[in-house]
Amino acid sequence: MNVSSEATRSFWTLDTSLPNAPRLEQDEHCDVAVVGAGIAGVSIAYELALAGRKVVLVDRGPLLGGMTSRTTAHLAPICDDGLSALIDMRGEALARGFQESQQAAVDRIERHVATLEIDCDFRRLDGFLFPAAWMDEKEAARECNKEYAAAAKIGAEAEHGKGVPLKGHESAPILRYPDQATFHPLKYLRALLADFEKRGGKAFADSAATEIEEGDKVRLKCDGGSTVTASNAVFATNSPINTWVKIHSKMAPYRTYAMAFDIARGTLPDALYWDMDDPYYYVRLNPGPGKTDCLIAGGRDHKSGEADDGAARFVALEAWIRALVPDLGGERARWSGQVLETIDFCGFIGRSPGNGNVFIATGDSGQGMTHGALAGLLIRDLIVDGSNSWEAVYAPDRTPPAALAHYVNENLTTVKNLAGYLLPGEVKSADALEPGEGGILQDGLSKFAVCRDRDGKLHRHSASCTHLGCIVHWNSTEQCWDCPCHGSQFAPDGTVLNGPAIRPLG
User: Fold this and answer.
1) In this predicted structure, what is the pLDDT of residue 430?
2) Which of 348, 403, 349 lies closest to 88, judged by CA?
3) What is the C-alpha separation between 229 and 218, in angstroms, rounded?
4) Are 473 and 427 in contact (CB under 8 A)?
């Protein structure tokens, strides 16, 4: 991916640059080709290199320049949608497998940090689930009891408690989840990439896979004309670019927002904090220089392409966290990212449906860091050994019966979007657009995505996403076009920033 060119910058990029890598300018032959250099792709490539495989890693943009750089990096094995919901959806056995595998992912990150002596602020800490602002004590206690019982069923450790050090919640019913973790994702992944290359792995940036030929060997032709030929291929591109519908109809893109603030050390205990709202808010700390740390808060999620009010969401997010932490300092950064929510709360990691030597890792469901590290373990085992004990939890070809309602509801977005071809445009004239503005223009029977970038240049392209033809929508916060159906993103000039689309806007 190449969302590094979007308008906002995450906190992580303020002190850590993205690694340099050459463009693919010659043909390569290898055991495994990995497409996508975020935490999933890098973890997969690294684990396979440790297993002795010859690996080539390619990305359409800079390495680590995709959604991984826009995370808030909670290393939490607890299901993002709640353990009770996970058990209801998948049953106790598979829910237990999910919990065990997510914990194994955190353990694996910790092991790499220790082995490579990575200075990335990795640390174990508690996670706290506390009431949403609208909940009374009875409702909060009921939610705590439900999640505590779910944790007990699958062997996840949780403890009842009273209060967290957030204003208004000092005596509220809460749950404490011990043995969570967090880190600086870019510092960690830069170290993995460095060791990957020391072990003979090859990594190429600014090399978009534009043609994919599957068979006994997988051939990936990149936009520079060079080809990677591999015995196995892995697509870890946030949203997979090698399949058109099979996976994309089982997950939906959501935009989430984050802000970083200075905070005096000791103001708030170092922990992970999540409220019980839906969508929920989340908070963590990151060590800073001297006596000042950084507090990172996130939330205000919405379906991608269905709202263009990022500025208002940042205002609401800041108001929420300042109400809880009145002594919060000045703002350091604000950014947004996109997550892919699956219909049953678990990622799709494993063999791509219908392909024996093609694998995918997608559907982070708000847990991109642990899903990414887990993908390294699971896909390594599938390629090297042919199986993995958690394979059924994440099998890409699954559609659990309990998820049918979610499946239908999420796919109504596509139906509603395609009906938009019958509606009038959003702007009457492209000439009236101010710098930073964009919208859909009706011209005869055709719809065009028109925008004026912040330098004042006017751009006009077809409004049809090149993946499956949905109408894109302008994202004024990130200065890009979002497809609400399956998560593709395009720059003002039509260039693909995020898949599953692989061709620019027409």
Assistant:
1) 86
2) 403
3) 6
4) no
pLDDT digits over 37-90, tens only? 999 999 999 999 999 999 999 999 999 999 999 999 999 999 888 999 999 989
How many C-alpha atoms does 208 have within 13 Å on its Cβ side? 18
Q: What domains, with CATH codes, occur in the chain?
A: 123-182+252-338 (3.30.9.10), 423-498 (2.102.10.10)
Q: What is the distance in angstroms between the CA of the first residue and the CA of the last residue of the chain?
A: 19
396 CB contacts (<8 Å, ≥6 apart)? 246, 247, 348, 349, 350, 351, 352, 353, 360
| Token pair for 412 | 């109504």
* DSSP class of 464: B
Distance of CA 245 to the CA centre of its chain: 19
- Give strand ranges (E) for 153-269: 159-162, 173-182, 202-204, 209-213, 218-222, 227-235, 251-264
- What phi and psi, each to the nearest 5 degrees, are found at residue 31? -75, -45
283-325 pLDDT, tens digit per residue, is 999 999 889 999 999 999 999 988 899 999 999 999 999 999 9
Given a contact cutoff of 8 angstroms between Cβ atoms, the answer to whether 270 and 285 are in contact is yes
